[in-house]
Amino acid sequence: MASAAPTDVTQLLFALSRGDKDALSRLLPLVYDELHAIAGRAMRRERSDHTLQTTALVNEAFLKLVDQSRAQWQHRSQFFAVAAQVMRRILVDHARARQAAKRGGAGGEGDAPVQRARVSIEAAEPAAPSSAVDVVALDEALTRLAAMDEQQGRIVELRFFGGLTVEQTADLLGISPATVKRDWTVAKAWLHREIAGE
Questions:
Q1: d(CA 111, CA 133)
Q2: Among 25, 18, 50, 32, which Cα is nearest to 135's?
Q3: pLDDT digit string (tens) for 172-189?
């Protein structure tokens, strides 16, 4: 399926913001493939026995996106950036629920150590040494990073949870690829130190 023209998606998002419910049924086919690609990249970084499937992640994220009655969609880049954010929340909530289930599971040991889901922070950089981190610890550290430097936080979110390339991230944020690369490198180093300190 050919990707939709950015203006088509933007116009439908405007209509959705104005309360046009018909826009929703026309929007889904235009954004589904890109949402599925973002979800697929995010799921590739999850553990192999993950119970959440890519299609379920897309569906849950889409429902959360369009259920935001106060959202004032301005353009497709904003929509896909928020989609990556929503997918991050879903994956982290899923990891927390899994941890809670293990703590209170059938083993009877309520305070037994929990094996937390570990993922590699070296997204899209296979040549770099892989360093597995706890997805919940990463989320907590990323929240702290975003409070200090919102742009670096968004870059990590888009690259790691959204699985976007440097160029896609630069396009979505309206900055240069060089800025994305620099902020990505700085943010990764900060996150590694922060998580190691925990």
A1: 22
A2: 50
A3: 889 999 999 999 999 999
CB contact at 8 A, 26 and 13:
no
Q: Are 170 and 180 in contact (CB under 8 A)?
A: yes
Q: What does the CA dihedral 147, 149, 150, 156 come to, rounded to 10 degrees?
A: -100
Q: What single DSSP character describes residue 112?
A: -
Which tokens in the block code for residue 174? 């309206």
Four-residue CA torsion sign, 162, 143, 99, 62 = negative
Closest CA to 162 of 81, 78, 96, 57: 81
The residues, ordered by sequence, that sit 6+ positions from 19 with a Cβ below 8 Å of its Cβ are none
pLDDT tens by residue, 69-102: 567 887 787 888 888 889 888 988 988 888 787 7
Cβ contact 177:167 at 8 Å: yes
Structure token pair of residue 14: 């405007």
